[in-house]
């Protein structure tokens, strides 16, 4: 029988687990990445409200398949906090507002996407927090599924039984091209398309409601620097690299937005056969130019060569309407020498001469890029670097 089933019974100090568990922090971030169709398949014979089961967690290494141990859990009483191999606690003495928690089952819940970011803020760097905000406010999720779940998703796609919940898997054929039919031999990528979990407006309102709480100022800064509309980690990394101020390690280019809608003229429509298209990254152009568009050519979306016939038509249509186009691949962004050439080319397309960075700014860039180009699936697991103590 579970504690408190017929009213409170005093049996010593109250435990965080007495009346259910609230997952938060990195654990909740991992949960929100899992496609709902996969969540429905998850089972675990361990009950976190049972002490004997909790002791077994470290041997498993993960809970529900994808939640890395130690699990981050909310604690409401400081005396119940004792760090173990199974759990990492986040103390919260304030009352959770309606919508701050989402139920998983009757005795297990997870913090909402916004509250998840707040509980992560003290533990991760500001740049990584910004990247996580961009993912939640973007149109994708990144997760590497276990083999049994990949095959379960394949069967649903091939049987046309995939739930219409806004989450769409991306299968890639052996030649690197997208495979919407999930044919045998294709591979399920780590990238899922979905509707945004949050908007920046909602996050600004959330921050205002939690004024003064631990980590909220860092979250506020992350929200101020984040973007909406990204459809892949690549787009976020490119946007942050180009838009972040030079003193912080980026280039300081004025990014207008991601996934910006571009209405097409009659001439452009005759090439692309549609009324509008969307720019991955849109920057202002020189006088007389409506803008400079940077297209992030990911192979899993654009084919083995990074380009499809439709991509070529899009470029021609946009150039017909006066836009300047630059195509980049991930390798061009991640390789430092190629990156510097790309930056100069982008500056030229925007109509100004690039000013080389000083030695000080290059060191800032190096540190910034070390944080920016990480394994995206590991985001949230890397702790913020400790601040160096000032010498007396």
Instruction: Label the structural class.
Output: alpha/beta
As a percent range, the share of strand residues is: 15-25%
Describe the sheet with the most strands: 4 strands, mixed
Helix content: 25-40%
The CATH architecture designation of the largest domain is 3-Layer(aba) Sandwich
- Quote the average pLDDT: 89
State the CATH topology of the largest domain.
Trna Endonuclease, Chain: A, domain 1
**Termini Cα gap:** 58 Å
Enumerate how many helices there are, as a single number.
15
What is the radius of gyration computed over CA atoms, rounded to a whole number of angstroms? 23 Å
Structure description:
The structure is a single chain. The protein has 3 domains: 1-111, no CATH class; 141-193, no CATH class; 230-371, Trna Endonuclease, Chain: A, domain 1. The chain has a 4-stranded mixed sheet, with helices on both faces. It has a 3-stranded mixed sheet with strand order 1-7-6. It has a 3-stranded antiparallel sheet with strand order 8-10-9, with helices on one face. The termini are far apart. The protein has 392 residues and is of the alpha/beta class. The protein has 15 helices and 14 strands. The protein is globular, with a radius of gyration of 23 Å.
């Amino acid at each position: 029988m579970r504690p408190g089933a017929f009213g409170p019974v005093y049996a010593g100090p109250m435990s965080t687990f007495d009346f259910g568990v609230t997952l938060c922090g990195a654990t909740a971030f991992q949960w929100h990445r899992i496609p709902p169709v996969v969540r429905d398949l998850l089972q675990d014979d361990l009950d976190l409200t049972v002490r004997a089961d909790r002791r077994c967690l470290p041997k498993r290494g993960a809970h529900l398949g994808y939640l890395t141990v130690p699990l981050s859990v909310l604690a409401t009483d400081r005396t119940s906090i004792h760090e173990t191999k199974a759990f990492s606690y986040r103390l919260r003495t304030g009352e959770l507002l309606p919508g701050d928690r989402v139920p998983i089952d009757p005795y297990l819940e997870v913090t909402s996407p916004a509250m998840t970011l707040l509980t992560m803020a003290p533990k991760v760097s500001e740049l990584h927090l910004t990247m996580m905000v961009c993912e939640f406010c973007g149109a994708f999720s990144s997760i590497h599924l276990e083999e049994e779940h990949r095959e379960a998703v394949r069967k649903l796609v091939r049987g046309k039984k995939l739930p219409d919940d806004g989450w769409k898997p991306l299968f890639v054929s052996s030649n690197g091209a997208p495979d919407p039919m999930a044919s045998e031999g294709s591979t399920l990528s780590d990238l899922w398309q979905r509707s945004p979990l949050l908007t920046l407006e909602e996050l600004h309102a959330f921050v205002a409601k939690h004024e003064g709480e631990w980590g909220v100022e860092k979250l506020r800064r992350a929200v101020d620097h984040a973007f909406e509309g990204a459809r892949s980690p690549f787009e976020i990394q490119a946007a942050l690299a180009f838009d972040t101020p030079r003193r912080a390690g980026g280039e300081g280019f004025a990014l207008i937005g991601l996934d910006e809608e571009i209405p097409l003229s009659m001439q452009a429509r005759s090439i692309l056969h549609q009324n509008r298209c969307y720019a991955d990254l849109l920057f202002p152009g020189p006088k007389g130019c409506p803008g400079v568009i940077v297209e992030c050519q990911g192979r899993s979306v654009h084919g083995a060569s990074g380009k499809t016939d439709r991509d070529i038509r899009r470029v021609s249509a946009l150039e017909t309407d006066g836009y300047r186009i630059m195509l980049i691949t991930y390798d061009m962004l991640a390789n430092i020498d190629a990156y510097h050439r790309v930056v100069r080319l982008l500056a030229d397309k925007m109509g100004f001469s690039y000013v080389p960075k000083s030695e000080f700014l290059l060191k800032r860039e190096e540190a910034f890029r070390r944080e920016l180009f990480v394994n995206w699936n590991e985001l949230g697991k890397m702790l913020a670097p400790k601040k160096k103590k000032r010498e007396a």
